[in-house]
Amino acid sequence: MDEKPLHPLAAAREALGLNRVQFAERIQAAAKRRGLRSGVTNTRVRKWEVDSVEPDDLSQEYIAEALEVDAPGPASAPWPHWLPGAGGRDRPHGGVVELGSTTTVPALREALQATMDRSRRVVVSAISSTALLGLAGAWAHAEPHPPASKGGQIAPLAPGDDLLTSLEQATNLFTSQPTEARQHTAHVLTALLTSVSDLLEEGHHRGEARRRLHVLAAKLSQELGWHRFDTYRHEEAARYWIGGLHSAHALGDSDLGAGILSDLAYQASWRNRPEIAAHILRRALTRTRHPAAQSLLQLRLARALAVRGERGATLRALAAADHLLGAPCADPVPDWCKWMSTADLAVDSGQALLDLGDTRRAHQLIREGQAALPAARIKTYGVFQIYQARSYLELGEPEQAAAAATEALDLALRIGAPRCVQLVRELTPRFGHFPTAEGVPELLARTAA
To answer: How many other CB atoms sit within 10 Å of the CB of residue 367?
Structure first.
């Protein structure tokens, strides 16, 4: 007898790592936020999943909120077909292209189409947390492709590859621009990725040449994802990173794939979804090999766990990140995490400790890390300044906090980093407790503009 397929609600719930009791609690919380009360229990959730009982319209609204997707409207598919992952065999993860041997081009096309839609003022559809968790789980359990050449580096140039060589040179040029210039390069990078996607789709390049195209696709997708993330175009950022994940999968580069998943996790943390970030990072760590890559993922995991108040797990992740950074390895450090340094370890460890309430130790680490940061990483310096401002506020030193936040704001405006501007603005309510402190009135006036 064939096994009964998993109900779409059960699949979506399990992708979030929730049992029925926890899911019912989320539904109750959704009702409470509206000033209402829901009597949904794990027994009711079981009836929806096992007995095919259809929830009423209000319960479906709560279910959508619990799954972090848009609530069903008049134009939506009926229950349960509007649920993430219920909409078709080619999109089992709620609108995310499933990993496979020939899925890179469709995933890249979706990212490029999202950019085109945005330029036409068309709303870009969001990717649910359920979809991201499903993709991360699929990647963690996918049959790996034979690995590409060691380190995923671009191979020596071959005769007759003039166009491919030109694309490599242009990609290296425009992904290595100074921070101040990157705000002006997004259109060029998009055009380069379009050309790479076209060549992959044509299928004329085989063997080493095709591998080089996948390396370019992954590099461009990751760069464009960060550009979109920095400019608050989160749906586009996620789609670019997913496109890059498909290329990493095609390359058989598990470290690169884990790194791109960790970018998606970082975005989840930024959007106040630390539980999603932690789930993605734990899946990514199952296939991460290089110590430097493992260190970065452990550090990002610590940040997510600290927000959740999981002190013991946070400290274990920080200890692992410290131990792994600089650990000997015969293979070169992957390109995507070469920037990781003791300065990053110190500052992000300080941020995690700040979330745990260890203010003085956190402040010391942030100061040490900021002092060790290379001058070329100017945007990171601005972010670190904001962290420094937060730690000064925790210590009750508003003048120093205002000075650090003002410097960060000036830098962010100069280099075109709206994400850093927003970080400063998010601190301003706390400056309201010190309205007459030196520098505070001026900072509040500027961030209110």
So the answer is: 17
User: What domain count does the chain have?
Assistant: 2
Q: How far apart are CA 421 and CA 195, in angstroms?
A: 33
Cα dihedral sign, 29-34-35-39: negative
Distance, in Å, from the CA atom of 61 to the CA atom of 51, rounded to the nearest integer, reads 20
**Nearest alpha carbon to residue 242 among 88, 95, 96, 93:** 96
Identify the domain containing residue 64 by its residue range. 1-87
Q: Are residues 111 and 203 in the same domain?
A: yes
Return the closest-CA partner of residue 226 out of 270, 196, 258, 192: 270
Q: Encode pLDDT of 208-261 as tens digits.
A: 999 999 999 999 999 999 999 988 888 899 999 999 999 999 999 999 999 999
Distance of alpha carbon 210 from alpha carbon 340, whole angstroms: 29
Read off the pLDDT of residues 280-320 as tens digits, 9 standing for 90 and up.
999 999 999 999 999 999 999 999 999 999 999 999 999 99
Kindly state whether residue 48 falls inside one of the protein's structural domains: yes
Has residue 353 been placed in a domain? no
Give the end of a domain, one of 43, 58, 87.
87
Query: Is the bond preceding residue 92 a cis peptide, omega within 30 degrees?
Result: no
Looking at residue 312, its amino acid is G
